[in-house]
Design brief:
It is a single chain. The chain is of the alpha+beta class. It contains 3 helices and 5 strands, in the order βααββαββ. Helix 2 runs antiparallel to helix 3. It is elongated.
Amino acid sequence: MSIWWSLHLRREAASVPLARRLLIGAMETAGVDPDVSYDLSVALSEACANAVEHGGAGAPGGTPGGYRVTAYLDGEKCRIEVTDSGPGFPGTSHGCPAPRPAATETDEHGRGLCLIEELADHVHLGNKPGRGGGAVISFDKILKWREDAPLMMPLLTA
């Protein structure tokens, strides 16, 4: 069984816990191991916080622009993608940036991408093609299931 959802959220701080709670709820209902759910929810929170902070401006004098979160739970893997409409990542010639580590251990900025890379199995950073621009971060993690998982894939029960 596969589960996927996609949200279009405003670039407001209140949208971050909303996305996180939806992901945790879906994974809990599906029967994903709580440790895996937690790791992915922290990574999602960091990606959403980056979209809120850096994701581009809305109309002048209007509401902030938006960003999109898409999550797929499919078989043994969860993939999450966060896309915004900001300037994108300042990148190399192939469009993939080199993440900058935080300046110090207590620095409040620059840790999000490092956290995502630590919590996920695979991370891809890039820019949306075309004139609209924007950053895209996708990450995935191999799922572990609770023994009583209601939506556990049949191939995982062997």
